[in-house]
Write a structure and sequence with these properties.
mainly alpha; single chain; 106 residues
Length: 106
């Protein structure tokens, strides 16, 4: 019964167009892929949150991040250099000359 209450609370927050960044960050760490998918498409998702979800193990979540209106081309290019395809759906060879600290947004 308790997980149902948590799920209902998640659904309530995700349906709010003005959900807080704090609320969305908590939901982004959910074990439920459906909740993380909803967070990735939420209009109030911050750049930090999108950067976190860009490394999600589920390619559909990464794809939503790539298409999110707040995701900047520079961020996508940085992820491509790190070994992702431009749509974040697959992996490619990383740029060996890239230092890991350059992955962080500037």
């Amino acid at each position: 019964m308790k997980p149902l209450k948590i799920q209902n609370r998640s659904n309530h927050v995700l349906k709010q167009s003005e959900a807080s960044a704090d609320q969305l960050h908590k939901l982004a760490s959910s074990t439920s892929p459906e909740v993380r998918l909803a967070v990735a498409r939420h209009p109030a998702a911050t750049l930090d949150l999108l950067a976190l979800l860009a490394t999600d193990g589920i390619k559909e979540i990464r794809g939503l991040v790539a298409r999110h209106p707040k995701t900047k081309m520079a961020d996508l290019q940085r992820l491509v250099r790190a070994g992702s395809t431009l749509d974040l759906m697959g992996l490619s060879d990383p740029d060996a000359s890239m230092q890991h600290r350059k992955l962080a947004p500037s």
